[in-house]
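Office hours follow-up: a student asked to see two folded examples consecutively, so here they are.
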Amino acid sequence: MRRWTALVALLVLLAGAPLTQSVAAPPLPPAIVAGTIAAVGPDMLEVTTPAGRKQIQMTPTTRVEVWLPARLADLKVGVLIGVESHREPNGSLRAVVIHLFAPERRGQVPARQFPWVNGNIMTNAVISSTVGGVSGETLTLPYQGGTATVIVTPATDIRRAVAGARGDLKIGRHILAFGRANENGTLTASGVALDKGP
């Protein structure tokens, strides 16, 4: 369940729309469809979801992202990340999920911090420093209006988004598609994310 929540987070971040604390997952926003690919056509995906089958319309500009596992060693100074953190009783932030953005996303994903699902906090920022310690690796993340210090533990789910291709979208794969909801119940996808974890 945490992976699906994290993938929703990643999609919303890629779409550039913050998710407020009052919005939970599930249910998903109307412009996001999650499920398993049941059929693939030249310009269409049919996806099985808990609410039934949904059709996803693909366009020449639909972007495919692949979500891959990443390592602690990938968290280096200068890397742009999105961190979903839980605030501990002592006030510190413990990273639950970390998304590493591709270098070309710099300048597209604004550095900011805002409320997230389950009372957690999302921080988008470029890592300015990393320090190892007893509790785990500590990341310093300057963003517009402040600086966050986040602790990464062995339980933190670290993921990286890489460019995918239409050929990655195969029957049986779990995806999240986001874009424009149409009146006929279909979704015209501006992007599709594929989970290839763990």
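And the second, which I mentioned at the end of office hours:
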Amino acid sequence: MEIDTLVSNQNPQWTDENYLPKEAGWPKREVFTAVEKWLNKRFILALTGVRRVGKSTLMKQIISRLIAKKLGRVVIYFSFERVQLKLEPLLLQRIITHYLEEVLGEKIYEIKDRIYFFLDEIQNVPSWQEIIKMFYDQNDNFKFVVSGSASLFVKKAAAESLAGRIIEIKVNPLSFGEYLTLVHPNFKVRSKNKAWVSANIGALNNYFEKYLRAGQFPEIITQGMNYQQAWQYLETIEEKITQQDLPKIFPIKHPEILSLILSQIKDRPGQRIEYGEFAQNAGLDQRTMAKYFDFLETGFLLFLCRNFGKKPLKSLRVARKAYLVSPNFGDQAALPLLAENYIFNLFYNRGFSVYFQKEKEIDFVVRDKKRLILAEVKFQNEIKGEDTKNLEDFLSRKPATAYLFTKKLFRPGKQINFIPACLAEFYV
């Protein structure tokens, strides 16, 4: 296919002034505002996150805003998802050059207006960072927004060619609030109103359990998938990442091991991981197994939680807990484990440093610059004295903010805040 056809097919706004991407009318996610705030800054924006989480939709919605402002001609979008780059390794450079010279008809040094480049699934492009840097440095009016499904592509770029030029914005799976907006737009959560919570906790938990099982990926909701269809959909995402994406980036000799690791974590998210045991079962050495876990974390399928202790270096050597990037991947796991996974992700995705406390058996010890937070997840209807004992023992030795995330209880404690897990994101 000729370069002109290849590029123009993805940019109908150049010839149709009434064109708007279909995504323009879809609900805007919370991350939309974060991206929009950076749009007029000089930095390259990198949207990262697991496959099918909504990065392309986010790009199209930003593009829609620009088109609505009559800026469609100074916007170019291109997805490298299905392009055979082995046959055309310099395609990115050709696309940008063609757009500037043939569509805009200007030399690089002549361009005075802001030009927006939206490049989707950029990690598939060899040496993309050098190519973007070349154009970025030639004109201050060039704004690049790129996306990718593995965190390594940004880390490498930031450490090498694009140091000081690139900002990463992570696109996470749907929050519970975003899920409710999609499935029940008129259902407004009034989390601070105790009477309202008491009257609606049953409905909230009903939604929350559906959300934990199959409610964190936009297409599952918009396509009206049932549980079986959702899990089949998620399996295709896993397979694409473990069998295609990661082997392209890393020297992985046994991609099937990635699937085996993931299948075990899916059954019991939050389990403690001993690399030696996994390595022995797989017939690999421990160091190789540790790398395989790192690969899965880079591919946004797993998060690893380290033990909380006085010596940070020691915490790197002891057992970790493994959590799924989304509870939805744990199709056979018990709901309390999915709720624990959700609480971990909530803190982690908001930028906290999250640990587990092995010695005191506390689910999470959470740090930011100012606070120490304890979090215990008991996704059950009744809470007994032993359920709060570990938190109370820790608090007797060290001050902290403590949360007990439950299923139905909603009452303040003297030392411990009791909060339904379904309302956690409205309080944390």
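Two things to take away from it. The chain has two domains: 3-170, 176-426. The longest strand covers residues 142-148.
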